[in-house]
Recover the amino acids of this structure.
């Protein structure tokens, strides 16, 4: 094992939102470093193709179609990973969406979806993985927040509320799971080039955010390297929170 794969090779990592963007980039990066990956997302064709590619390249991967707004489906994803690879070392609660809009436009359906995926999806990931980690007396939750979990801007109130909730839930989890030797990491990225702006349903807001991303966004693999860093620290070291941005991003 070389210094790059140390702390990563052999760790079983369950990733929600693995069909694009940060989840996909992280699956590729960690599997190249020797981690078996368990891929969840609704677009089964995408995660199956990705799992196939990883296996063909000599890695270990499995795909389970999963809607994170359904607790039973998230449980099935985690249990499938444990059944196939024998354990779960990391639960990466990454699935999310960002349908920005000003509150006065009353996009209630967007608010509901954002809360269901970004908050409840993370909670369901915790519910599914925690019993396995308690039994193992080890594990690591990595929950994806955002710069928006630290700052709120017009049109971003609901998204920021969900990403703040992820930080609050993660900090509560951190305090509660010490006795099972479980680590918790919050990762709060700035803008990264993914499909995320496509979840915006208001054309004018989509244009503004699209222009911002075009100017500033970093490649998604910058996030994958941050995940690898948090994972690779020795077990006694719990990296609790990482906030990172494109160097040029002011917000
Ligand atoms: N990109 C950024 O600039 C940025 C910055 C800060 C934080 N983040 C956070 O990073 C995370 C990943 O987003 P991304 O940037 O990689 O965007 P993305 O390319 O749009 O990926 C989002 C992922 O979430 C999945 N997803 C959405 N709804 C789902 C559901 N109901 N059940 C299961 N999976 C679902 C999507 O898969 P399916 O559609 O196939 O289900 C997709 O794989 C999100 O939590 C986002 O808030 C991103």
């Amino acid at each position: 094992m070389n210094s790059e794969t140390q702390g990563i090779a052999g760790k079983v990592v369950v990733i929600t939102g693995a069909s694009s963007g940060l989840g996909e980039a992280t699956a590729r990066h960690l599997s190249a470093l020797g981690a078996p990956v368990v891929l969840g997302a609704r677009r089964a064709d995408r995660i199956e193709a990705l799992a196939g590619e990883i296996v063909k390249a000599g890695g270990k991967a499995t795909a389970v179609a999963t809607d994170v707004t359904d607790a039973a489906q998230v449980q099935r994803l985690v249990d499938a990973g444990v059944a196939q690879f024998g354990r779960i070392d990391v639960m990466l609660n990454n699935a999310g969406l960002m349908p920005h809009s000003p509150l006065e436009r009353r996009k209630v359906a967007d608010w509901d979806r954002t809360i269901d995926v970004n908050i409840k999806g993370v909670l369901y990931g915790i519910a599914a993985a925690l019993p396995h980690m308690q039994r193992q007396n080890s594990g690591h939750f990595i929950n994806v927040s955002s710069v928006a979990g630290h700052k709120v801007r017009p049109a971003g109130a609901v998204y920021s509320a969900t990403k703040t909730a992820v930080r609050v839930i993660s900090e509560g989890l951190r305090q509660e799971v010490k006795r099972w030797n479980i680590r918790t990491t919050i990762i709060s990225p700035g803008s990264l080039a993914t499909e995320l702006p496509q979840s915006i349903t208001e054309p004018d807001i989509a244009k503004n955010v699209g222009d911002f991303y075009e100017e500033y966004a970093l490649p998604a693999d910058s996030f994958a390297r941050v995940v690898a860093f948090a994972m690779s620290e020795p077990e006694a070291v719990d990296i609790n929170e990482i906030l990172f941005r494109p160097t040029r991003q002011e917000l």
About this structure: DSSP finds seven helices and seven strands in the chain. The helical segments are 21-32, 44-56, 71-85, 108-136, 157-176, 203-216, 221-232. The longest strand covers residues 182-189. Residues 108-136 form the longest helix (29 residues).
